[in-house]
Design goal:
The chain has 1 helix and 6 strands; from the N terminus they run E-E-E-E-E-E-H. By secondary structure, the chain is mainly beta. The chain has a single domain (about 15-85), classed as Immunoglobulin-like, CATH 2.60.40. A 6-stranded antiparallel sheet has the order 1-2-6-5-4-3.
């Protein structure tokens, strides 16, 4: 008799970034949004800490369970921090 086995372990998320016309940024692999306003969105992804800069930025979709984020507005820059910065997390960066 065959035994059925269901693996309930979470599979590692992949990180995908899609920028359309510098107005719509779709991300996967998002772990946490640390801070945001109309000019900056700071978040943690499986690929490292990411800062999005622009103007009129709005978060139109956020699903941390699915690791998805949609940002709309004028996107002027994307910057990844080093691996050590990512591992420290928001409170580690805040407290120094």
């Amino acid at each position: 008799m065959a035994m059925l086995y269901e693996d309930n372990r979470k599979q590692p998320m992949s990180h995908l970034l899609t920028l359309t016309d510098r107005k719509r940024l779709s991300l996967s692999g998002v772990e946490e949004v640390d801070a945001f306003d109309e000019e900056t969105v700071t978040l943690s992804t499986v690929g490292g800490a990411l800062t999005i800069r622009g103007s009129g930025l709005k978060i139109n979709k956020l699903s941390l369970d699915g690791g998805e984020l949609l940002v709309e507005g004028r996107i002027d820059g994307l910057e990844y921090a080093g691996e050590n910065e990512r591992r420290r997390g928001f409170l580690g960066r805040l407290l120094g």
